[in-house]
Amino acid sequence: MIDLSHSENQVHCVTNFHDLVSTPYNGMVNAICWTRKLTGDFSEIVKKVALSGNITTIEQEELYALQLSEQGQLAREILINDLQALKTHGASPTLNVINHYDRDENYPFFPTDVYSFHVDRSPIPTDTFLCTYYGESSEILPNSQVQQKILIPEIRDELRKLYHGAEEGFDSFLSEHFFDLHYQATPNAHPTSLGIGHLWRLAIDHPESKVPPCIHRAPKEKPGQSRLLMIC
């Protein structure tokens, strides 16, 4: 089960893939969740994959080639079915084993990596899909529980020190460096964990969107435990 007690009606739950991709966002709803309880041993897949670097992408051919137990085979079947469903829908999913993401060390007072609450942006209508099968899961926040970081006076003052152009170009500078995509949780904020096995569709910032984009972040990984994540 997913604890939606603090989600402020941000999340709409469905029971199948068709409803996941076809249910429109509406009002404050900017996250659609296909709630599932998956069978199979996804940790076995993480252990069997040859890891390379902080993030290892598992190609479908490699997934087929893994020698797995019966429970591992059940997990593999679910992964392949999810990959195929998303591809048929027109998405381009990737399956990753994540040790950790690179941290943004360019701006210590304002990191723009995925561990910061942020929104995704696209010039065309699209969505973010993701599912955590093993490890720590991502979090989302209602838009009412955040403040855009570039509007916080002390942060804005620090950003101005980085900018050396004309005043009318400052907003473009913030956008070009993705500062405008990041948010700070309010003191009373309560993130919602996306949980394990649930397939999510999150609204992003694009010109035709009728709802606010979904604010989310990657979790801090536990030492020694990788994540198995599908995302597109």
**Count of DSSP strands:** 12
Structural class: alpha+beta
Q: Please report the distance between the alpha carbons of the first and last residues.
A: 24 Å
Order of helices and strands: EHEHEHHEEEEHHEEEEE
Provide mean pLDDT, rounded.
Answer: 92
**Segments where pLDDT lies below 50 for 5+ residues?**
none
For the report, how would you describe the main beta sheet?
A: 7 strands, mixed
Shape: globular
Strand order of the largest sheet: 1-2-10-5-12-4-3
Question: How many whole angstroms does the radius of gyration measure?
Answer: 19 Å
Strand content: 15-25%
Output the number of helix runs. Answer: 6
Query: How much helical structure, as a percent, in the residues?
Result: 10-25%
Walk me through the structure.
The protein is 24% helix and 21% strand. It has 232 residues and is of the alpha+beta class. It is globular, with a radius of gyration of 19 Å. α2 packs across α4. Strands 1-2-10-5-12-4-3 form a seven-stranded mixed sheet. It has a three-stranded antiparallel sheet with strand order 9-6-11, with no helix packed on it. Strands 7-8 form a two-stranded antiparallel sheet. The longest helix is centred in the middle third of the chain and has 20 residues, at 70-89. The protein is built from six helices and twelve strands.
